[in-house]
Amino acid sequence: MKYQPKIIKCRLKTGGKTINEIREQNKGQGLTYRDFENIQKAYEEFDGVVLLLSLWDYDNHESYHVYGWDDEVDEKMMMGIYHAEQTHPFPRYKGKKEEFIADWKAGKYNPGCPMCFEKEDVEELEVIREEVKNMIKYINNPFEDIVKIMNDIDPNINADIQFNPSLKGKDFGECGMVTFPADDSTPLIDISTNIPFEAMIEVLAHELAHIIAGEESEHNTEWNKAFQKIQIEWQLKHEDNGVTVEVAKYEKGTEDGFEYEDELECIDISIGMFKASVVDGVRLYPYVITSKGKRYISEQGE
Ligand SMILES: [Zn+2]
User: Fold this and answer.
1) Which of 18, 54, 163, 236 has a Cα at 20 to 30 A from 106?
2) In this model, does residue 209 exceed pLDDT 70?
3) Residue 117 is inside which H or E element, if any?
């Protein structure tokens, strides 16, 4: 469905303002005393008018945009807008009241910009329609989930992430890689698009763990802890969805041909740690996290 603003029936309460009050409200717009007088006249016409105003997402719902009005207040709207037109930076109807009224009655008048009222000049009477937001959205975006998790773990981490179709083959970096620029600027994560979707999610977590652990981390204890932390947070985020995770015990020494520096101390065995495997000398990620938060053994490497 298309975006639609919130529509509210409102009463304008613009009347009874002194020139000084109007000057204060319109400060810094380069208006003259004559302009303030015209605004005052417009405000007196608008005062008490009941009309439809709209609130929009694009200006953070800050001002009330004129949306429509009934015939019975048309005369007051016409005269109010005529006076407001006198302050227009490029006046088309300066002192041309008859011309303005003729155009108005003929439906030819176009204000050229949205007419707005400030919050303080508006009394809300009734919501006619709630805002309808744009309806195209992701209902699950696991990449975004991981980015949110990272911001919770350490809001000071920076990374640029790109999906890279040129990462393929059997060399290191088949699945993903981090590039730490020599000038200490933002690290770049490449994620291969030639691996299963779920593996891409896990590779993102893997590479972010490298950024937490630092450039020289390889797959040392710091990296393991960081990666585990991301997985635990992921798990917590998705546990309401009935997620179950296989436990993969992860110990000091060599497992699947991959050397681990250290036993993990902080591991929660109910959450588990994924095992790495080596296929043709390339570390692949057989335990991947699905978009529902589950893990399964991928068919990768066959
Ligand atoms: Zn790695």
Assistant:
1) 54
2) yes
3) strand 116-117
Query: Residue 174 Cα, ligand 1 centroid: separation in angstroms?
Result: 11
The predicted pLDDT at position 173 comes to 55
User: Mean of the pLDDT values across residues 154-181?
Assistant: 81
The pLDDT > 90 percentage for the chain reads 38
Say yes or no: 148 and 120 in one domain.
no
CA of 229 to the centre of ligand 1 (A): 15
Instruction: Report the separation in Å between the CA atom of 219 and the middle of ligand 1, taken as the mean of its atom positions.
Output: 6
pLDDT at 83 over 90: yes
Distance 198 CA to ligand 1 centre (A): 17
Domain containing 84: what range? 6-129
pLDDT at position 137: 75
Residue 274: both structure tokens together: 């994924």
Q: What is the largest CA-CA distance in the chain?
A: 92
Q: Cα(176) to centroid of ligand 1, in Å?
A: 8
Q: Which amino acid is at 291?
A: S
Q: How many CB atoms lie within 10 A of CB 267?
A: 18
CA of 124 to the centre of ligand 1 (A): 58
Predicted local confidence at residue 123, as pLDDT: 97
The answer to whether residues 234 and 144 touch, using CB atoms and an 8 Å cutoff, is no
Is 259 a member of any domain?
A: yes
CATH number of the domain that 196 lies in?
A: 3.30.2010.10
Cα–Cα–Cα angle for 208, 198, 164, rounded to 5 degrees: 60
Q: Which residues pair with 160 in a beta bridge?
A: 188
Asked which of 81, 98, 129 is the last residue of a domain, the reply is 129
pTM greater than the 0.90 cutoff = no
Residue with tokens 């009734």: 126
Is residue 251 within 8 Å of residue 272, measured between CB atoms?
no
Query: What's the confidence (pLDDT) of residue 42?
Result: 96
